[in-house]
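Self-study notes.
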Amino acid sequence: MDTPIAMTDSYYFSKDRIVLTQAQLRIPGLAMFGRHTIKSAISPLSTHYHPHCFEVTFVLKGTVTFSVDGTDYHLKGGDIFLTFPDEVHSTNLNPVSISKLIWFQIDSCVTDHLLFLDKATGTLLQKQLYSLPSRILSMSSAMPQLAEEAFEHALHQTSPRLTASYLALILQLLTNSAADTHTPLTLDIQQSLDYISCHLTEQISLDELAALCHLSVSAYKQKFKLQTGITPRNYINMKKIELAKQLLDSGCAITDTAMRLGFNTSNYFSTVFKKYAFQTPSEYVRRL
C-alpha cells in the first residue's frame, strides 16, 4: 500500500476543473470547494487524507469508485460520499471515470462561527456529521441544484455568507435525511443490466434493451440514467472495458480482445479503452 499523503488542495482553474481554497472563499471552516467535469478517465487518486477535514463529495453525473480501509464504494449520479477527518482514502488504482463532481471540505477544528453559524450550532452540525449512519448517502431532489448554486456563488464571490448559507442548508438536509443510500433498481432496469452482463461479447443495441423493458428508446435511456447515474451506452462500454482488462490479463491479444468484445476495429477499441481506463490497451499490457 502507498504511504498516505496529507493532501491540502491548492487553487486551480481550468475549463473542466475548478478548486477554490480559503483564500478565495473567506468562509470560516470551509477549507475548499471544488467542481470537476470528467469527460474521459483520469489517473487514479493516490492514497491520501485531508488533515482534520470532513470531505463531502456530490456525484452529480456518471460513476466513480472510492476506497476506504480496503473497501471499495461504487457511486453513481445522485450519491454523496463522506470521508471523515484524517481518514485515508483513494480510488484503489481505479481511474476516476466519466462523471461530474462537486465536493467541499469542512475543517473539524473550527466550531466557533463555522459557516458563520454560532458555536452551539456549528458544534451540533459537526456532531451530526460524525453520527451519519453511512458514508454513502442519497441526494434529495433539491440537493443537486443547491450544490450547483452554492458553487456558483462561491466561484463568482457573490457573498461568502450566502455561499455558507447554502452549504449549511445542504448539510442540514443531509443529516436530517440520512436514512440510507441506494434506491433499488426497478425490475426492468435490473433485467437490462443482467442482459448486458450476459451479452458483453456482442454488439448491444439500445433498441433491444428498450424492447426488453417495454419502453421506447428515449424513455429507456432516461429511466436507466435516473436509476444508475450513467447512460446505457457509457455503462455498456465501461463493462466491456472491465472484461477487456480480464482478457488482456489472461494473455489474450489486443486485436483478439477487440474482436471478442464486438469492436469493429482495434483503433476504435483502443480509443474506447483509453477513455475508460486512462491508458491504451498496449500501455495496459506493458504494465503486466
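Second protein, same conventions, sequence then structure:
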Amino acid sequence: MSVPFDQLDGEIWMNGSFVPWKDAKIHVLTHGLHYASSVFEGERAYGGEVFKLREHTDRLIESGRILGFEIPYSADEIDAATTELLKRQGFADAYIRPIAWRGSEMMGVSAQKNRINVAIAAWVWPSYFDPEQRMKGIRLDLAQYRRPDPMTAPSRAKAAGLYMICTISKHAAEAKGYADAMMLDWRGRVAEATGANIFFVKDGAIHTPDPDCFLNGITRQTVIGLARRRGIEVIERAIMPEELSGFSECFICGTAAEVTPVAEIADWRFTPGDITRRLVEDYAAEVQPKRAAAE
C-alpha cells in the first residue's frame, strides 16, 4: 500500500516558511475547501531544474487574479522558494505543486477579508500512466460532463473548482477499465482530457482544439513549438467528434502526462505513429537541463 500524501516525509513551503510535511495543515472551515476559492499549478523538475518555472508561477498569480485575489508573494519569491524546496527535499526529478487559497477568517460566499495562503510541495511522481501501457497508447472513455461556456466559469484560470467534473469523469472512466476520459465542450466540440490537452494527426499535420474554453496548457504550447520546429503543420481549430474516425494518430500532453500516445477513445481507434513518437522524444529532450550547451 502506498503512503498517504499527508504522511510523506520532508518539508513544505507554506506562507513564507519551510515547515515539516506533517505540520502543513489547514482548518476544516477554510474557504478554499468549501467554496473552491483555490488555484494551483502542476510543475515537473528534471535534473534538479523546474521546467518553465516562471511561466507556471506567472500563471498561478494570474489565476489568483481571475478568482479575485492577489497572491501575497512576488514571482521571484515563489520561484526562489520552489528552487530551495527542491534542494531541501533532495530531488532531481520531481513533481511540484504550488497552491494558493482563501483561508478561514470569514465563512460564506463572501470572503473579502480572508487571508490568501500559499504553499508549495514537491514529491517524486513517475509517469502519470502505466509505463508499460503508455507507449502502446492509452484508452480514453468519452466523458459525460462537458467543459463549460467561459461565460459561466473562469476557464483561463487553473482553478480547483474546474477540476470537479474532471475527477468525476476520470473515476467513471477508470471504473470501466479506461485510463482517462476525453471531454467535449458545451457546444459538443472536442475539448481535452481530464487533465491534459489533446492532439490528432491526419495526413502529416497535427490538429488540436482551439483552447477557447479550457486551459491553454504550458505543455501544449511547448509541444506545438516542438512540432513547428520540425516543420510539422499544427492547425488549431474546432474539432467535432464525428471527425475522429479520420485521424490516424492521437496523443495527449500535460505536465503530469508529458506526451502520451492514445490508442482508443470510446469507439475510435488510433495507432501511435512517427509524429507521436517523435514528439515524445523531442519533449523528453526539451525538458532536460541544457547544462552541456551552456558550458
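Instructor comment on the second fold: The helical segments are 31-35, 53-66, 75-89, 131-134, 164-175, 218-229, 274-286, 291-294.
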